[in-house]
């Protein structure tokens, strides 16, 4: 056996092993959530029975809008990677990513997006997706920290959030990830198709605007969801929203399970209890599970939208001229 064949076999074996590990972790997360749901079933029943369905529906629609809006910075990151697309198309591709994120393996969103736009540059789409994730992890972290500080000092809380959004926009505008991959590619004798990108005040302002708009839309959705499903008001409500934001970041960092399954729930319970939300562990666990289900509703709605659009497009292509 040649060295090339041996190396290829080793890569394939590691890929299979990683896939098995991710599938096992995903299955374990599902089982753990099912056990938690059974243990907290009484608290979950109480939360569901007191839910305002109209406000929950409004939260779902607003969350879908927030997911759609992530396409505007995604459009900028696609440009940094040398892929031309309209802003509306980029927003639609982000809805596709919401559907694919539940599939074990982080590449599937890029694969589906590449098929939809007829591009073979899956790697560039994957990098643009990573850019989006990092950008929103920074902005959502700033939002969560700003909310926590807001409870003590509203002015300082606003300052932390705004400075965090501005810092996120400044970093994202520099195309740091594409530059890093380009340098690594040059060391390997490869060449990327990414154009030369230079950060500008206009680019920073544009990304800052989208960070602000997305954060406000996301917060409105979470506030509506918690008001619809919990009795929380004032400080408890703000701290719970901040905990959900920071738990979302923790779940996004946990790339070994799809959509941070189980990680977000544990992080929410830990953070909410540490930050002093007036509820016991059972109620917080019930809220985290109900929040997981309700935050999945926009993804189901996104799947419906993508399905209808693709079906309509397929029917138009088959229709005779």
From TrEMBL:
The keyword Coiled coil does not apply. The chain crosses the membrane at residues 20-40, 52-70, 125-150, 156-178, 207-231, 237-257. InterPro entries: L-PG_synthase/AglD (IPR022791). It is found in: Cell membrane. It holds the Pfam family LPG_synthase_TM. It is a multi-pass membrane protein. Keywords: Cell membrane, Membrane, Transmembrane, Transmembrane helix. This is Lysylphosphatidylglycerol synthase domain-containing protein.
